[in-house]
Amino acid sequence: MQTDTELAPCDLILFGCVGDLSLRKLFPALYHLQAAGLLHEQSRIIGLARKPLDDESFAAQVEAAVRRAVGSAFKESHWQALLKRIRYLRLELSEPKDYLAIKTLVVDLSPTVIYYLATPPELYGTVCENLNASDAIVPGGRIALEKPVGHDLESSRCINDTVSRYFSESQIYRIDHYLGKETVQNLIALRFANNLFGSQWDQNHIDHVQITLAEEVGIEGRWGYYDRVGQMRDMVQNHLIQLLCMVAMDPPTQLTADSIRDEKLNVLRALRPITAKNVARRSVRGQYRAGQIDGVPCPGYLEEQGGRSNSDTETFVALRVSIDNWRWSGVPFYLRTGKRLADKVSEIVIHYKSQRHYIFDPRQRSMVQNKLIIRLQPDEGIRLRVATKEQSLQQGMALQSQALDLDFGGGQQGRIPDAYERLLLELMRGNSSLFVRRDEIEASWEWCDNLIDAWHQCQTPLEPYAAGSWGPDSADALISGRGRAWHQRVD
Ligand SMILES: NC(=O)C1=CN([C@@H]2O[C@H](COP(=O)(O)OP(=O)(O)OC[C@H]3O[C@@H](n4cnc5c(N)ncnc54)[C@H](OP(=O)(O)O)[C@@H]3O)[C@@H](O)[C@H]2O)C=CC1
Ligand SMILES: O=C1O[C@H](COP(=O)(O)O)[C@@H](O)[C@H](O)[C@H]1O
User: What residues bind substrate, as annotated (predicted)?
Assistant: First the structure.
């Protein structure tokens, strides 16, 4: 994971520049990079979309979005410096002749041009073909593709085939923004820079692993997109599987992009398929009904804006996953993700085995088991729960569980950069470590396609859950047994 490559001038051509992602995430991230002095003086940003906007009205939209995201920390001087770099170009992505304007533009641009596709993925192939036909791809240019790359293995291969006709693998940066989150990168430091953890990261010491990506939000007006996709393709195929790989991978031989990606690929190849034979025991799919979150009433999925009265799309998934290799033999990974759950929380919890020869009160055994809680959001940090003696004269050797805490969000370290700041920076530096390689994406699709097929074959029921709950009851049943339960945030 090299991060010290010097910044060279580079120009960002942002396709889909007035979309939700660009306005909510990318421009605020660019603002913060500008504020931190991390944009090269000569780097420019050219936004492309089909809305008839001039530079001024585009800038006004971007400014409003950046102000919203940055809040009271917004500084006019940083914004003005960013604004100088920004231009708008109107273009219909499916219209080849519109690309001539890009061709004219790239002649003037820096040696490094980044084509960032924040557009619907169905257009990725078309954009590459049209760029090529207009001779608008500069040698050494980089292309960034937002997730999801495809809808299944076949469509993913098709997109990858088309893109790779015009860009070599080393020029392609497939984005999974979870890989840009600070705590995810800290996993690398935690695991591979600390012998304490590195030496005990296996089936001899770990009982099971839980990964939760829970959201309070519903589908936020994205019915058209979401109902075709569902939680499996929206969150499991990419973010959840990438986190699983980061937790489960063997140590890379070096901190290079390919070393890390080779190890993640090995995990994907070792995932035991979930098929019609075991799908009922290993998965739960759910859909939210009306409920309340923090006292505020929320509609059910079918009543969401743009929704219809019957949809079989899952908004919640829980899985029990096995990794068939030496390190993880017999260690289940419990994964869950859902919309409209009780809280917004993304965390990885490593549950350690308890002492083989246990000399304390056996009733306390599960309560004081060691847990390593890696919190991605909110309150980024790492917490280790250890057993200590209760401080009391009366209790004898009674144990209690206490926490050793690392709070990354704590005052001294300042603001935690958003994932897109890190990703844009590494993209400009040409560091691929935080981006997903073609074989990883395809191996992940292959595994997910199997699971989705199994759901179809077995007509796996869609279990209702109330908005504001932690998902269907059967998700609790999936993990229960051997004293296991989903980790609760009070810990
Ligand atoms: N929004 C998010 O939080 C996340 C999004 N993503 C991915 O990012 C990508 C963009 O998502 P999002 O921003 O939500 O999508 P939006 O629908 O909000 O924005 C799409 C953008 O693409 C432009 N566009 C679409 N079709 C054309 C066309 N034919 N010609 C020219 N421009 C076109 C739109 O321009 P115009 O408005 O002018 O029509 C708009 O600027 C998707 O791949 C999505 O999966 C990934 C992670 C999170
Ligand atoms: O990719 C996506 O991620 C968001 C959740 O991202 P987070 O960083 O806020 O945890 C999710 O809401 C969206 O549906 C999905 O497309």
Answer: 177, 181, 215, 234, 339, 344
Extract the annotated binding site.
50, 92-93, 147, 177, 181, 215, 234, 339, 344
Ligand 2 center from residue 56 Cα (angstroms): 30
Residue 474, SS3 per DSSP: helix
Residue 446's domain comprises 181-415+436-478
**Which ipTM value was assigned to this complex?**
0.98
The two structure tokens encoding residue 387: 């057993």
Q: pLDDT by residue (tens digit) across 293-337?
A: 999 999 999 999 888 888 999 999 999 999 999 999 999 999 999
Q: Has residue 400 been placed in a domain?
A: yes
Domain count along the chain: 2
Q: Which residue has the tokens 């393709």?
A: 233
Inter-residue contact 265 to 443 (CB < 8 Å): yes
- Candidates 239, 357, 456, 487; catalytic one: 239
User: Which domain CATH number covers 297?
Assistant: 3.30.360.10
Structural domain includes residue 169? no
317 shares a domain with 246: yes
Report if residue 426 sits inside a domain.
no
366: burial class by Cβ within 10 Å (0-12, 13-18, 19+)?
Answer: middle
CA-proximal residue: ligand 2, atom 7 (nearest): 178
Residue 358 has pLDDT above 70, yes or no: yes
